[in-house]
Specification:
The two termini are about 45 Å apart. The strands form 5 sheets. Strands 10, 12, 13, 15, 19, 20, 22, 23, 24, 25 and 26 form an 11-stranded mixed sheet that branches. Strands 3-2-4-1-5-6-7 form a 7-stranded parallel sheet, sandwiched between helices. A 4-stranded mixed sheet has the order 17-16-18-21. The longest helix is centred in the N-terminal third of the chain and has 14 residues. By secondary structure, it is an alpha/beta fold. The chain has 15 helices and 26 strands. The protein is elongated and about 70 Å long. It has 2 domains: about 220 residues, P-loop containing nucleotide triphosphate hydrolases (Rossmann fold, 3-Layer(aba) Sandwich); about 240 residues, Class I glutamine amidotransferase (GATase) domain (Rossmann fold).
């Protein structure tokens, strides 16, 4: 398999544009491209899918560990002609940086440099990134940077000045400053793929610009099959049907859970309002015995008849609050389902949808499903951002009491007008003492604590669990099985 990583000098230097351009160009050349994204990002992975037609995978060492990340990369790269990983922030930024991922996967790096406002100084920037690999923080024997691409270049002469000052690494081309290509932005980042922010003709134009200004053939020539040590078994990664680390957990005899000899059917909310899912979560659920059926809270009138459980991910419900609020039949279907004790798992935007209502950025209120006795309100700035480790304080759909899982949190909304005192939470954050508050009404409890935080999370109503945290099921390989086992305890409605 062939592969490389697109890294940047900093956020906003053009990594995503050049990544999408290379994906589009390689696909136009007839190659099968497998996309990946470093870190927990949902939006970039959706754009990768829009361009390549295949699911992009998150490679997050903090959430899932080194072995899971290696297995994930090699599994999904096995059938591709070339794999492209889009990095995160600047190449060396963060404890789990793009540079660390490059070292873990033994992959070459192409560095994106924003050329706006510089010329000869670009040589110093590139030299600094090349030599920083010798630091104690990133002790590479040799720099993983094997090529440089400049973004926002003013002219051919400007490119020549840039190229002439770069030493010890190949300059692979550039994208022009006047490139007519832009991905709309909003809070949380770029516009999601489900809204089709990039027209097909613009993707084609981007691909043509890449083929004109970037030495794509040279990039292909520089790639070589990446060796992978499978350990003592000697088994080829291509022969694995699932991530090898998951085989014992999910495929061993007797672990697959079924109801009446059929797969457990999980209805997944998926449309423009709810589209933030780790693709691995859905695949791990399938490996554990689930069948995924998608539905739209925006346009469908009710949840699917055959559903055994509901999974509502994150997204932008605040942007579609009016449409969601007007779909009263769906909200009634959701409320009745939860009130009957049927299982629901919801994250971030899903939590907002299950609340009494959403106050948008203008303060206008839109009624939601009303499963939980609180409202949510959009804020002008970020409310919470960062990695989260959780400890389950009670048995729930995600696992057993004492289980630890990891995920990510990024949202602009907050819970407001809570009508009930919080009781026991499902999650406990690290180094926080377990607090079991007594409440006169047990309708609202919380099931986990966030480790290394002073907050509790995981709101529970009967068999509905909702949280602001996007949990990656790869952080605890029993999660998907526990999810299915929990559902199996309740008869189909």
């Amino acid at each position: 398999m062939n592969g490389f990583i697109i890294a940047g000098t900093h956020s906003g230097c053009g990594k995503t544009t050049i990544t999408l351009g290379l994906m589009a160009a390689l696909k136009k050349m007839g190659l099968k491209v497998q996309p990946f994204k470093a870190g927990p990002d949902f939006i970039d992975t959706g754009l990768h899918r829009l361009v390549t037609g295949g699911h992009s995978r998150n490679l997050d060492v903090w959430m899932c560990g080194e072995e899971y990340v290696k297995e994930c990369f090699h599994k999904y790269s096995a059938d591709a002609d070339i794999s492209i990983i889009e990095g995160v922030m600047g190449m060396y930024d963060g404890e789990y940086s793009t540079a660390k991922l490059a070292g873990l996967l033994n992959l070459p790096v192409i560095l994106v440099v924003d050329a706006y406002g510089i010329a000869e100084s670009a040589g110093a920037v590139v030299k600094g990134f090349m030599e920083f690999t010798h630091s104690p923080i990133h002790p590479f024997a040799h720099s993983p940077i094997k090529g440089v691409i400049f973004n926002r270049v003013a002219s051919d002469n400007h490119f020549k000045r840039l190229k002439d000052r770069v030493q010890d690494v190949t300059v692979l081309g550039y994208l022009p400053r006047d490139l007519d290509f832009e991905i709309p932005h909003r809070h949380l980042g770029l516009t999601v793929a489900e809204e089709t922010p990039i027209a097909k003709e613009n993707i084609d134009k981007l691909a043509d610009s890449v083929l004109e200004h970037i030495y794509v053939e040279k990039i292909i020539e520089q790639q070589s099959p990446v060796p992978y040590d499978t350990g003592d078994t000697g088994q080829s990664i291509a022969s694995y049907s699932v991530i090898p680390a998951c085989r014992e957990s999910f495929l061993a005899e007797g672990l697959r859970t079924s109801r009446n000899d059929k797969n457990t059917i999980i209805a997944v909310a998926y449309d423009k309002a709810f589209c933030f899912y780790y693709e691995d979560n859905l695949d791990l659920l399938k490996d554990a015995g689930a069948e995924i059926v998608k539905f739209s809270p925006l346009s469908d009138s009710a949840i699917p008849d055959q559903a055994d459980a509901i999974y509502i991910g994150g997204g932008y419900p605040e942007l579609y609050a009016k449409e969601l609020s007007e779909n009263t039949s769906m909200m009634k279907s959701i409320y009745n389902w939860a009130n009957s004790g049927n299982p629901i798992y919801a994250e971030c935007g899903g939590l907002m949808y299950l609340s009494k209502g959403i106050y948008d950025f203008n303060g206008k209120f839109f009624e939601m499903a009303g499963v939980f006795p609180f409202e949510t309100e959009m804020k002008k700035g970020r409310s919470h951002l960062g990695y989260r480790e959780i400890l389950l304080k009670e048995n729930c759909i995600l696992g057993k009491e004492g289980d630890k899982l990891k995920g990510h949190e990024f949202h602009y909304s907050e819970i407001v007008n809570n009508s009930y005192e919080l009781g026991v939470m499902s999650y406990e954050l690290k180094n926080k003492k377990n607090s079991r508050l007594q409440t006169p009404d047990s309708r609202l409890v919380t099931y986990y604590s966030l480790l290394n935080s002073n907050r509790d999370e995981g709101y529970v109503f009967k068999n509905t669990l909702a949280s602001y945290i996007h949990v990656h099921f790869g952080s605890n390989l029993n999660t998907a099985k526990n999810f299915i086992d929990f559902i199996s305890k309740y008869p189909s409605p």
